[in-house]
Amino acid sequence: MAATPPLIVVRDVVNRFGTQVVHDGVGFEVMPGEIFGIVGGSGSGKSVLLRTLLGLRHPDAGSVVIEGREVTAMDDRELREVKRRYGVTFQHGALFTSLTVAENITLPVAEALDLDEASLAQLVELRLRMVGLPLEAAAKHPAQLSGGMVKRVALARALALDPTILFLDEPTAGLDPIAASAFDELVLYLRDTLHLTIVMVTHDLDTLARTCDRVAVLVDRKVIVDTLEGIVANEHPWIRHYFHGGRGRALRALPENGRGA
Amino acid sequence: MGDAPALVRALGAARAAAPDSLRVEIAGTLDIGPSWLLRGLVTHLRGAGRQVELVGRVPEHLRFLDEIAARDVGMLPGPEQFTLADRFVAFGGALRQRVASWYEALVFGGRLLESAGTAWRSLKRLRVPSVVRHMHETGVQAIPVVAVIALLISVISAYIGAQQLRPFGAEIYTVDLVTIGVLRELGVLLTAIMVAGRTGSAFAAELGVMKLNDEVDALEAMGMNPYEVLVLPRVVALVLVMPLLTVVADFMGLAGGALLTNYLLDLPWSQFVMRLDSSIGDTTFWAGLVKAPVFGLLIALTGTLRGLQVRESSRELGRLTTVAVVQSIFLVIFADALFAIYFLEIDF
Q: ipTM, 2 decimals?
């Protein structure tokens, strides 16, 4: 892994809102094929960091380089081009409520490529199969779907343009443990078969333990990056509290847990 | 994924030529999407008994695609076909929806009456601060636009009236035309139409968004009555505000008439006022004003009812907001017609 160059390089990112500094020199690297978790307390700037990575927000200082291209120094047209290489899912799905599932999935494809109806329908079938949804869901509207299905459709839409990098914002939030663990399996499966690189913001300790190769913790406006074992062993009081508090129980059995890949 | 359209074209050509054997050489790397489309054609041709050979850089994820293709996840729903029976079903569905909508309106009216009853007995239940806020938003803030519209319309009607009456040397009747027209009909009707567009839509959109955010359910879950908290203050506010706006519109309408007759017919202000005094009867002003609260009630009821009917999607929100405006304008004009007939009968 040491020989391959990192896919995402974040260097000295500073984000400020007025006088409030959210990030003060945040930097890390994400390797190809890695599942990279981002955790942090409420208000620690996880979403701001994700928006910065996606090029939706311009950092006050520092740079973000993805696949050797500096996202933070691009004009709008270039950025739009590059964004097609990423898939993104949002915390609440952000499915278009007035479109059916099939239309939600074909929207980015039809926008980017000139394809006929039959091919689009085949691609809808592919994406639904990839995320493990029954094909009859294609004709439904988002309001008719369960929370777990919404997340899967959002993932199917994120995969629509065959991205190399997936950004997932709280992919398992609001799911019951069964649906959440099924989603974890799906993420691992897609990473292993498609060699995707996945960056996810999550609060779900089980998801972290099950899927993530490395974890970035946002504390004190900085970031601490390590493997999960390393993070869990970290002496920082907030991190200790986060992983060893009442809800960290699942992680105590960590060494015995299979962690995929 | 960018090579998908070219691939689809090449595959289409291959399918149309229907050769006995096909050799596909893959030169570059294929993403999942294009690989799936390629796989679709290959299985189609092989199913038809043809020879297909893949050479070159055969994507390794074909195995993954075979794997997911083997999963039994049902069929993609095809485009909907309409038979005669389906039309009957659709007609029945629409009819049922219409009936359900009437039923909802009935429930709405009942619950509103109930909360109006409680408010009648205890003023605290009326939520005066909320009423005042809505009066400000729907009334005070609407004054400029209502005033300008009333002025312009009365100027236009006075101008046309003066032109038509001049050949008969009856220009002075322009004053009668404008004053009676504005006081009886135009003032209140224009105000109602402006308010329907401005406030009826706002009511529907506000309540619709609250409905989509589960805020209405949240109120109900806290033991509060959404009709008392959301609907009644809006209805009361609009019923109170409409007559006041109508007075503004009437005044501006008369001012517009005076302005134009002064400018076009050289009619002095004093004479305009004298003519105005003799042309209108005791009831002319009241015949317009008495309709205002009724129109306000119709607009507020339509807007809030449609807002509360929003469910599921943002498209529904847009549709019902439009419905609220169109229906409230329709109801206002319909009610105006009834008033006209009634006033004629009782000689008001």
A: 0.72
